[in-house]
Design goal:
Oligomer: single chain
Distance between the termini: 71 Å
Radius of gyration: 23 Å
Number of domains: 1
Number of strands: 0
Structural class: mainly alpha
CATH superfamily: Chorismate mutase
Length: 108
């Protein structure tokens, strides 16, 4: 039996909210999975860069490129309505991990 009275509308709204919340969370889960796969692909490329640098006695870090990439990502973030500060922090974190890998490759 369908609820009646003042709570009937609230019950329908609550059910709709629960359904919408589940839909949004499914989208977030899919996006999180995509992020992990994209990061994995990125690290495969940076691994090759690290090997190439080590084989050619190039330094693991390239501060000029890193600065260009940060500025580029900040611009992309602004265009996408994402906080550029967040984008910079994210890329800085990724770059630090890449450099750690490159240094390990160079010292191997």
């Amino acid at each position: 039996m369908e609820p009646t009275g003042p709570r009937a509308g609230a019950a329908r709204a609550d059910a709709a909210a629960v359904t919408e919340l589940a839909r949004l969370r499914d989208s977030i889960d899919n996006l999180d999975a995509a992020l992990v796969h994209v990061l994995a692909e990125r690290f495969k490329c940076t691994q090759q860069v690290g090997l190439l640098k080590a084989e050619n006695a190039m330094p693991p870090a390239d501060p000029e490129r890193e600065a260009r990439q940060i500025e580029r990502l900040r611009q992309l973030a602004a265009e996408a309505k994402l906080d550029p500060e967040f984008a910079e922090k994210f890329l800085t974190f990724v770059i630090a991990e890449v450099l750690r890998h490159h240094e390990a490759i160079a010292s191997a």
